[in-house]
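Why does residue order matter? Because the sequence determines the fold. Keep that principle in mind as you read this record.
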Amino acid sequence: MKLKTKFSHLAYSCALILFGSVQFAHAAPLLTPHVTNEVSPAPTANAWIEIDTQAFEDNIKRTNQLLNGKTQLCIVMKANAYGHSIDLLMPSVMKLNVSCIGITSNAEAAMVRKHGYKGKITRLRTATDSEIINAQALNIEELLGNYDQAARMSKWAEANNTTVHYSLALNSGGMDRNGLEMATALGKEQAVAITKLPHLKIDGIMTHYAVEDEKFVRERLAQFNEQTAWLIKKAKLNRKELTLHTANSFATVNVPESHLDMVRAGAIIYGDFPNHPEFKGMMAFKTQIAAVNNYLKDSTVGYDQTYTLKRDSRLANLPVGYSDGYRRSFSNKAFVLINGQKAPVVGRVSMNTVMVDVTDIPEAKAGDEVVLFGHQGNAEVKTSDLTSLTGHILTEAYIPWSNSNPQVVKPLQSQQQVILTNNKVAAKAN
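Structure:
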């Protein structure tokens, strides 16, 4: 059926993509919740990202179980929910009554508000003046850790008869990034001065840990507690009106005393926490076999002839490459899953094509699903399988995956299937 939509002026242009009867979303659009266009049943994507919303919900519940019932959970959805799509995850956020969302950009905040979210949105990095000014309608709690910027925002807020709410950032966690250095007289003086500026309302005090190490976190937490106690007394702040927060995912899991009034959880929410398998991975990167061809022993595969076949071989052509985020450094090292079995990558990963050896998977054929990352049956391409090849953290890879490929969500979250792309939303009744 055909349904109409009104597009957001912040949205970007992209063609409608559909894969069967599942949901799609491009990585970082601003979308309206309305619907448009007629849904085609034919798959057209060369590769896609599959998002497990049930795992997302389970991870939220597991995180809440670590808290004491009084500590607030703030779900970090920066970088478009670590590449998992704010648009596709917000129904779960609303369902579970999540009280706080952490973002970095105004576009992310707008996506969250578009879904009718009324809870707290807190910014997790220093914003530019223009970002803060343009975000006032979105009701964002800003991050302030610089007196000069705070003074400018105070003057602007006064001139515009408004109030800027903020969390005060301290450098207790050792990042040397956003916060005031309270170990100096100047830092203490500026912290007190910021709290006295008119038309600014302090809602919380925070820091962020530089190292994932229990001893380090405990030492820095002690500094934070000492510094905040001093500031609250010196500036005559009402402790009951403040939210103190320091804990990231590591501290949330390993250092319970760091929970304070709120934790900011990202990695554990998305299952990117390898030492704790109870937090389920919720992303898979998939494609299909485009064709299977036979090649002779001693012939070479791909650019620069980096791989020589050791036997007569069947090679599967995968329509995905480094333009889709599958890294060139995976060449001759990574493996994929086909019919629940490992197939090694052979030859250079090129811009749009990867070749894999399916000689030992005789049933492999064109159209078969290929898992580049994630589960297939009892087999899995794990985080460590890929990070060990590059020396990078996986988020460096999977955020670009989501920026380059449509996203599929299973299970459907309603009786209506929703297909999301850069500036269009389509729906079709089941």
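The chain has two domains: 53-265, 283-405.
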